[in-house]
Amino acid sequence: MTNASKLSKIEVRGLEARFYDFLLLYGTFGLYQSLLKRVIMDMEIKTGDKILDMGAGTGKNACMIRKYVGDEGFILGLDIGEIMLKKFNRKCKKYENIKSENQRIDEPLAYKNEFDKVFISFVIHGFTQENRIKIVENAHKSLKPGGKFFIFDWAEFDIKSSGSILKFFMYHVECPLALDFIKQDFKAILKKQGFCNIQENLYAGKKIRLLSGEKT
Fold this sequence. Notes:
Blueprint: H1 3-7, H2 14-18, H3 20-27, H4 32-42, E1 50-54, H5 60-69, E2 74-79, H6 82-92, E3 98-102, E4 115-121, H7 129-142, E5 143-154, H8 164-172, H9 178-181, H10 186-192, E6 195-203, E7 208-215
Parallel strand pairs: 1-2, 1-4, 2-3, 4-5
Antiparallel strand pairs: 5-7, 6-7
């Protein structure tokens, strides 16, 4: 196993999985819940949209998105954590149009031209750069022409010029690969992988963003 693989956090287990929503809220300085609501609005989801949620976690995102796709839409959540999938299925069980699958998002997916939108929230930074590219490729393949890929995660920024609290969190709490992620030019990566109309919405002092690209 390479050093980068050891640093990766692609499956959340144990206590971290049981208290994942709380930890995510803490990790984003209490902003995640309110930011997520704003992000979902900024995604301009339409009634009837078919959405793929990569690294779907506890189902919180899917249940919030369900409000916008309505009964006519569909949401498929992908995750590999046993505890996460149990939480997802329990939280979303009352909705017949929300489903989950145990599926790695950095391995080839079976979907092709199926979804209107692909969403990934605070997951992709936990992968090596090589596997991040694979995730982007999977998103592109899964989308219908004209569909959009949304990455809600850390923005590009210089950690050295950041405040002490953020520095402590990024160095001592966050997945180590996040420090590599914030250096990557994902706008260029999306363009290289066939996305156009790249857009960026910045939040939380420009440290968190919603990055999107449209499948040509």
